Structure formats: structure tokens, C-alpha cells
Task: structure prediction
Amino acid sequence: MEFSLAYAQQQDEQDTLRRFRDEFLFPKHEGKDVIYFCGNSLGLQPKRTRAYINAQLDNWEQYGVEGHFMSDTPWMYYQKTTKESLARLVGASPMEVVAMNQLTVNLHLMMLSFYRPTAERYQIIMEAAAFPSDQYALESQARFHGFDPEDAIVELHPREGEYTLRTEDILATIRKHKDSLALVMLGGVNYYTGQFFDLQKITEEAHRAGALCGFDLAHAMGNLPLKLHEWNVDFAMWCSYKYLNSSPGGISGIFVHERHSLNPETPRLAGWWGYQESTRFLMKKGYVPEPGAEGWQMSNVPVLTMAAHRAALDLFDEAGIENLRAKSIRLTNYFEYVIREINKKAGFEKFIIITPEKPEERGCQISIICKEGGRNIFDALMAAGIVGDWREPEVLRFAPVPLYNSFADVYRFGEVLKGLI
Result:
């Protein structure tokens, strides 16, 4: 590798996915596109999104309520248009996934189905300092069932002097609490460090302990290839506004393994849209769930939001998640290299990368601690048109997203950062 514009441009010329950059709209800074490394917080708008939404506005105008059954995309079945794409991204059958609700709503719905504590088996394992929504949801679920969160929730902490969790420590904690453990519930990718957990091994150990296992995939969905069905994961949920680029606050989604989703006796809260589709409009008393993940739906589909989701998912279908992952590894490797080169020029390790070095243990996010003046560095980068993300108390997060970021973006970021020190 070389810390040079010529090298970065050469990599971009060889990039078979480079055309996808032109599919997105970039914010401007002083008349030029910003360097956008914040797709782990909010993805950019695909250019095609407006047309997809306008098509549904036209259907609304033309058909009114009959749009539920008429047009080329009847709203009654609109959620089905995303199932094949979502299934490819999470490694599942289309029956095991559905787009619905918002992420924390879906987290609570999944907890109501799969956190079924008893007096003896009631504990939940989660990572310490997980994203606040997860912390608050699990605390309230423990209290809802009559338990003290301080006792019911077992937090996973890195070892002294380390920033990320070791898989062997996660597995050892599961074994330690096997007699009292009801659920393992982690983020697939930790939002702060960018660490990607070994979901297969964690699921296997949870099941050996007699517990269920689920994951919040907010930072994993559209970031890494997943194999939830093969890994035997019980359930998962995600948002769509980060790597999936499906609009601010865009629709969430769930995965429920077929052994649960095909069982009508699996506990759940019921809503009209999750009722058996073939007889839904007969308005009968007594809930009969639609087989699969659709049986967890509560309300009819928010079509305009789903149209934005469909526009973004089409890009993933065209690019392929495996292809995106290959480019992501190359981009993050180059990003790390640039940081190390800057540290060399500084004469000391001014920037500490806390994201795991092994590509299999991370997605496309790189989290950095600046030993001095981190917030000032971040503000100066933003003032220079480089959009990242600051997380208290000391972390700068950057996500070189393979759909729309380039090696030249990484080089220019490095040049600005080098100038700041």
C-alpha cells in the first residue's frame, strides 16, 4: 500500500463497484461533495429514492383506497416486495423475515416472545455500554417481569486495558450462568468499537446452556454477510437507515427462525396485519397468525417509507453483499494503513484504533481514540468537509461504506488529518 493519491486512484480504477457511487446524493461543502464517512449513523440518499416514492404518491392520487389492491405494486402485499432482498442480506428464507415497525419497537416485540423468564432461569447476557436503546429496553423488560435489572442483566466487559470483547470470554460467561440464563441478547456489531461478534459460536453456546439467542443488527445489516438461519439464531431485528440507506428513521425489520415462526403457539403480541392473510378481511375473532415472520406484524405497511426501502434494497441486489464485503475489507485495511502512516509522521501513536484489526471481527467502521484534543480534531475534520461521527467520551467513528466511498476519499481524509497534527 501507499499513502498517495496515485495509489488510491489506481485502486478506484480497479474497483468493479465504483459505478454505485454515482447512485447517491452527497451533501455539499463549499460547492463540492463532502467526504461522507457517516453511513454507520445515517446512509446517504439514493438518487432513485425520489422516483420510487413518487410512484406511490401517483398510485395514491390515481387509486385512493383501491391502491391497496390495484397498480403494479398493491399496498396490501407491499412488504412482500422486500422479503427476497432482506433474506439474502441476513442469510434466511423469505418466510423468516419481514420489514415492519421501528427498531426498538421490534426489540420489545421480540423480547416479549423470546424472553420468557422463570424464577430459576431469568438472566440476560448483553454487552456493557451497549447502545442506549438496547440498555433501556432490556432494563424495562426485566422490570416488566418483576426482576431487578442489576441482578437479571449480566454485562460483558472487555478485559482490563482492552477495548473489545474476546469471544472466549463471552462463551465463558454464558457457561458460568447456564443454570440461570434465559437469553443472550447482543448487538451484532458494537456501535462504539465496530466489533463484529462471532454470532454462530455465541448462538451455539447459548443453546447448549438452554437459553435463547438474539441480536440487534442495527450496525451489521447491509454491512456484513450474515447467515442467521444456518447459524441457528432464534431472532434478530435491525434498522434500515444506516448501511441500508432507506431514509431517516426508516422502517425496521425482523428475523424469526422458522422453528419459531412456523409455530403458531410461539407467544407474541397480535395485530391485524399479522393475521392469516387469506382470511384477514373477514374480520373474525380469535388471532390466527400468518405463518413466518409476517405473523409478528402489527399494522399495515407504511408505503412511502417502504418505497424508500425498496429503492435502497435494489442497489444491494445489484451490487451483492459478498462483493460489497470484499471491497469493505480493502477499504478498511487502507484506512488503517493511512492512520498508521500518520502516527509514524507524528512520531508516536496519536491515534489509537480500537476496532479489531482482523477483518473477520469488524465491518466497515473504524473507531479511533485521539490521545489529545479528540473533539477539536473531529470539529476540524467536519469544518474541512469530512463527515464522521463523535461519540462521548473520546471516540471518533468513521465508516468507509463500499457502496459509495472510494479509496481517494480515504486518502484525502488522511491528508487533512495529517495536516491537523
In short: The mean pLDDT is 96. The domain at 5-33+321-420 is CATH 3.90.1150.10 (Aspartate Aminotransferase, domain 1). The first strand starts at residue 24 and ends at 25. Residues 109 and 269 are 7 Å apart (CA to CA).
